[in-house]
Predict the 3D structure of the following.
Amino acid sequence: MTKQTETRDRVLELIDRLTVGQAIPSERQLSVDFGVSRLTVRAALDELVREGHLIRRRGSGTFVSEPKIAQELTMTSFTEDMRRRGMRPTSQTIDLRVVPAGARLGRFLNVSPSEPTVVAKRLRLADGETMAIETLHVPNALVPGLTGKDLELQSFYELLSERYGITIAGGIQQIEPTVTNEEESEALGVPLHSPAFLFERTSRSSDGKTVEFVRSIYRGDRYVLVSELTPQTPRTGVPVLTVRDDGRVY
Amino acid sequence: MTKQTETRDRVLELIDRLTVGQAIPSERQLSVDFGVSRLTVRAALDELVREGHLIRRRGSGTFVSEPKIAQELTMTSFTEDMRRRGMRPTSQTIDLRVVPAGARLGRFLNVSPSEPTVVAKRLRLADGETMAIETLHVPNALVPGLTGKDLELQSFYELLSERYGITIAGGIQQIEPTVTNEEESEALGVPLHSPAFLFERTSRSSDGKTVEFVRSIYRGDRYVLVSELTPQTPRTGVPVLTVRDDGRVY
DNA sequence: TCGGAGTGCTGGTATTGACCACTTGGCGCC
DNA sequence: GGCGCCAAGTGGTCAATACCAGCACTCCGA
């Protein structure tokens, strides 16, 4: 725990006790209070400003900012995503089998086409309603003994971390519009050819190995992507998955 | 021009002359070369690392990184977006009329329902191929005398800035999957009910006024959203519009 | 020849001190 | 009472210095 992260955490606690628009103590004051140098305080505040918790006003002070409309799109699993939105995520494993990766999947996972690979098809629910259908592909060697039941009990990423000691370090996700086919429509309970998002994600672990390739179909009538746009300044354009509760969310 | 931004620029020049994977001089060396403190060099490098130009390796050095797959999604117009990808953006104004805002649009634009509003429908092309169809809504008072031809000659945001003195300060964009209707299919030259992205964007100027509401339909077969995912650490998840040149882009 | 310890580099963190640019509010003058 | 100026406080920037932790290479001894 560096002083900087410690300072960051202490400031976050401060923020929790304040309301939007209120000023936090000055950098000089904080450096005295916490017993660290002002630069350390600044570094911690820098981070919080980047994350949208604080707003600096030169000559005036540093203030608690509006909660960001669009939160960071971090490396979240479906489970975390739903929890963050106060919904209860569940999962039904429709199918789980181990098959050779094949050419295309082998390329994605960076393994031999003959490599045994777990292919799991899951229906993802939020508060009991269908939200997405997901097909997971993982080299079997990474997750020996994985069962369909395992996937229903906890987040796959939690499982990866706790049972197999694998932590996800990053990934890349591609999003396209699509329409549901017969199988997807039936599983999701929506009309045939309903608009949907197709997510394709490849994740890699901290040692650089490709861990999974996931293909998900999200209901277009329940999901929207919202991104906040900022001009010029390379601040961050932060998109987020937002559940459409009723008809619209503005 | 602060020393930090100056240092940043000089390092960027350095990067241009190097290839991916090569090391830049050490922080201490740069601070001597540029005649600034190491702290200043670090701050400049911090920014470049955040933007994805450089990668630090403790004990080893700082290296030129792969160009980021996902660039920042800044407040871009279609025009800027296409230019950044090396394509030539053009525009055909299909229709332009001034009508009362009405209830729904008035709410979006934060004006009275009877407020005269420019509604312009444009076909957006990239390298001569249809890419999107866009319907622009702007209070007429903000852009008096706007013609359909104006919109074909330059970016609307450039026009706003140069002729009307309005600069866009931010906005929020919502993205959904949809399918094209008859009119859209015909205009875009795709089959009826083709998958497409629906973008709805509301932009505000620096003085807080809502400037525009834009509704765009992007061809799903030519557009994909790519977002790079980073775990835990609230670095930035940066999504971007990526043109699908051929069949796939991986 | 091979392996391991040592050493000199790298970036990572932290401190102290200083000055600048800007905001704000109070004080004094009109 | 109102206006304008000025001082105090704020964040923004920068310097010089120190020590820590990780990496890679060299050199020496087995």
Observations:
- Residues 26-28, 42, 45, 56-62 of chain B lie near DNA strand C (CB under 10 Å from a C1').
